[in-house]
Write the structure tokens for this entry.
Amino acid sequence: MQNLIDILAANPLLLLFLVAAIGFPLGRISIAGGSLGVAAILFTGLAIGAIDPRLKLPDLLVNLGLVLFVYTVGLSSGPGFVASMRGRGLSANVFALCVILLAAALAAGAYFVLGLAAPVVAGVFAGSLTNTPALAGVVELLASTGQPAEVQSQPVIGYSLAYPVSVLGMIVALYAAQRIWRVDYEAERQRPDVRGLGGVGPPIVSRTAVVVPGDHTGVPIGQLVGSRRWRVVFGRLEHDGRTAVAGEEDVLQPGDLVSVVGPEDEVAEVIGALGRESDRHLEADRTTVEMRNILVSNRDVAGRTLRELGVPHRFGALVTRVRRGDVEIAAHGNTVIEPGDRVRVIAERERMPSVVEFFGDSMRAASEIDIVSFSLGLALGLLAGLVTIPLPGGIEFKLGLAGGPLVVALVLGALGRTGPVVWTLPFSANMMLRQVGLVLFLAGVGTRSGYDFGRTLASGEGLPILAAAVVIVAVVALVTLWVGRRVLRLSMGVLSGVLAGIQTQPATLAFALEQSRDDLPNVGYATVFPLAMIAKLVLAQLLLVWLGG
């Protein structure tokens, strides 16, 4: 056994892959109808790290994993983050701030009830909400005031004991909540308030309408869609027995057949307005008009809206659907095309080869990562994390490795492209890098926290600190989940991301993503993360000043 420990201690890469190889299959085991998913790697890291203090991964691997994870999350969440801020983002941020203030009040209560030292309390607060920059700010403040080394170490002790409690506690709380409330994630994706967030939307269908006389006849299709704000796409149009691609200038006449593509409820509404549903399906008629799913691999196309691409005017063709990962959305003029998307195009048979060439349709090209834009974006994020931001009262903070890349990625993801530079990644590449980064981070955090956590549990010396952490974590989790669900009426996917964002904790976010199987947790996480990061950093130092003053 000792020889194995020595080998693992001397070979951190071997340790990393052993933790991942054990943890990942454990996460697939079903417990009461659910599973821990990739978060089981964290628990495996804690268990192995508790065996020997040398069994821990280097900081470089942990930091690399953190940066890769938050940057790829930010890129994919950028458009959803912007959309959420137009709606309920403000209320979510106010809610998050109130929860963090509650956590600070509970930490202050531990100072008076349990007799913990002020530096320890500040560390417990930072650890209970898993915020390393807040801990760094507290330690730096103690150093700047000339405190001895033993005092400077007190926040670290409080943080190291509270951190694992918080990660484990939040995951358990999420698991319990979804079981108690019997959350149906598939049904919640259909809620009107989450449609379009994180690429989530209802299933897309195609129906054929028979046009009857009415105020919609004799009006160009483009004008009709704009004036009635229909969120559907008209695909094929059959007039006088001839089928063609429906254009914006085409006019609907009584007796025409027209295919309508979009969410099922909206398609039904449009067909009701035009006339009635036909027994025929124009999509099945490919005598003159061909339909094809084309892979977007042309970098000149990626990052642009369909309106900018002007496919109807270039080729007389029409994009009706866009498939991104496992999500299919109805195509509109404002739909931004990303590398790796599959677009469904209808065009006259002789024009289809030109359309295919325009979009690329190369699996190899679509799978490649633009190293220049990826590296440049990460560099900008890391630089943003180094910037010192002054706040009133002489307090300064930095976004750090977690905040800088995330904030920059949110901006770049929302932009899509800047001139010739495409910031977004192909969906498959984004998911791969996210998974690799997450495994590095979870394995690293687990192994680095495991020994101190196990030793303290065995000795009983840190029981007051653990008690304070348990209370803070339990109250924060219960308040966030109950108020978010029952009062704010947030979907469980978004709410789980908000909880992870209040923690600024990728491990909790990873568990939420495993459970929801969509990007809604990313949206909730990205919405509250920036404010949560700043609030926790400031409050940790204020606790130290107020309680130690």
User: Anything to note?
Assistant: The first helix runs from residue 2 to 10. The CA atoms of residues 253 and 439 lie 59 Å apart. The chain has 22 helices and 13 strands. The chain has a mean pLDDT of 82.
